[in-house]
Amino acid sequence: MGAEVIKVEAPRDGDDARQYAVPFLQQGQGEDSDLSAYFSSCNRNKYSIAVDFKTREGQCVIRRLLQNSDVLIENFKVGGLAKYGLGFEQLRDDFPELIYCSITGFGQTGPYCKRLLSESLSTGPAYDLLIQGMGGSMSLTGEPDGAPMRTGLPLFDLTAGLHGVIGILAALHNKHATGLGQHVDISMLDVAVALLANQGMNYLATRKRQERVGNHHPNVVPYQVMPAQDGYFILTASNDDQFQRFCKVAGRLDLMQNETFKTMEARVVHREAVTEVLNSITEQRTKSWWLEQLEKESVGCAAIYHLDEVFADPHVQSRGMEIQMTPTGSSEPVSLIASPMKFSRTQVDYRLPPPHVGEHTEQVLLNAGMAPATIDELHELGAIDIGANKIPRASPSERLPHLEAYVPCGYSHLSASLPFFQTLPASILTLFHVPP
């Protein structure tokens, strides 16, 4: 979306997601790289810098970068960054235009944000599965007589991030009008409750517990997985007209004369009986037959793909949802999932493959106007890590000029007064932490 994103990681090991095995991306000749597929799924187009902000010098590096950053995003526990002098309240006076986005399990307020409530509920790490349980989605997922079921994706890890982006964009819009930043507080549990959507409103309207209905829809029948001769397909007749067209395809228009099938309300009330009859009809034909015939009548239907079928689908391919990028140090490109956003005037720019730990530390600090000698000193002190990624030094005339400016931590020679990335709409600094 046009922003430059700098991911701040711990020196050496970096983001814990780097270690989530397996698989790892290949770096050529069938050898694994240090980039896990899990990490790579959400870390393209990001610079990686390795900074130990537990140290005073590391904190100064962060403050230097914040001078020219529009947004800081962090996922520490409440108060986790304050002990390093990097909490919102500690930064707001020095950086009044900064938008500070915190993504946590339970938010910055409320009884769960800081204290231990019981032996089973604490303010420790909030993993996606915990939020799926506490947010109610697991009680709605799975077969009626089965165990609560998680979704196959880290749903609230992803949607909390999306809501964070929405909040940041709103705060940026307000900043353009007022000149002031603010704290954007995203709670994964809040997101889970908000995404209950129609299921949540079903409860609020009736105050009755919503039970699991498997692959069925609580308000629409049929809207479910159907058996065929050779497997399963999806049928979504979301109104009475579509259901009548389904009956036409099935050669069972007589069902529309039956009070049990005639209306959506009746089909929902008599869900089990309706499903039993419909199953007996659809299992007489193949998946391909049903999909072809139902599409002709504009009845909602779809195949159920495995992932190999998803990426082989000609429509998915035509939309460019698989891209190729070559990680630094690799001799061969790797496949990555593309952005789903398509713009009429501008194109998504895939600039950076998933980075190695601290791959861009020196580049970022040099571009920020930091003196090479200072970078070397910080590296020797252990405040930053440039690892094997030390880059050839440009001559002083080719670098951004090193202009000193005050940094409120007594380490003034870390700073410069030039914009960090001058041509882009936003510069975002992310401080991420996944506790063990």
List keywords for this structure.
single chain, 436 residues, alpha/beta, Rossmann fold, formyl-coa transferase, domain 3, 2 domains, seven-stranded mixed β-sheet, three-stranded antiparallel β-sheet, 14 strands, 32% helix, 15% strand, elongated, disordered C terminus
Largest sheet: 7 strands, mixed
**Uncertain residue segments:** 115-123, 393-425, 432-436
| The CATH homologous superfamily of the largest domain | Crotonobetainyl-coa:carnitine coa-transferase, domain 1
* Number of DSSP strand runs: 14
What percent of the residues sit in helical stretches (DSSP H or I)? 25-40%
What structural category characterises the helix and strand content? alpha/beta
Our count of domains comes out at 2
Average pLDDT, all residues: 87
Computed over alpha carbons, the radius of gyration is 27 Å
Number of helical regions: 16
Order of helices and strands: EEEHEHEHEHHHEHHEEHHHHEHHEEHHEE
Shape: elongated
What's the end-to-end separation, in Å? 32 Å
Strand content: 5-15%
| CATH class annotation of the largest domain | Alpha Beta
CATH topology of the largest domain: Rossmann fold
CATH architectural arrangement of the largest domain: 3-Layer(aba) Sandwich
Largest sheet, order of strands side by side? 7-6-5-14-1-4-13
InterPro entries: CoA-transferase_III_domain, CoA-Trfase_fam_III, CoA-Trfase_III_dom3_sf, CoA-Trfase_III_dom_1_sf
GO molecular function: CoA-transferase activity
Keywords: Transferase
Protein name: Succinate--hydroxymethylglutarate CoA-transferase
